Amino acid sequence: MTYKKLELVEDLREQLKFLKEIGVDSLSVDLPVRTAEPPRETAHDDFQTYVPAKNEFKAETKQNREAGRKDVRRRSEILQNYKLSERKQSAESPKSPESQPPKEKIPEVTDTIEKTESPEESLFGDLSRGLPDTNESLSDIHKDIGSDCERCRLCEKRTQVVHSVGDPQADLMFIGEAPGADEDVQGEPFVGRAGQLLNKIIEAIDLKREDVFIGNINRCRPPDNRRPLADEAEVCKPFLLREISVVRPKVIVVLGNTACQNLLDTKVGITRLRGKFLDYFGVRVMPTFHPAYLLRDPRKKREVWEDMKKVREELNRQNASDS
Ligand code: URA
Question: Read out DSSP for 50-76?
Answer without folding.
Answer: ----HHHHHHHHHHHHHHHHHTHHHHH
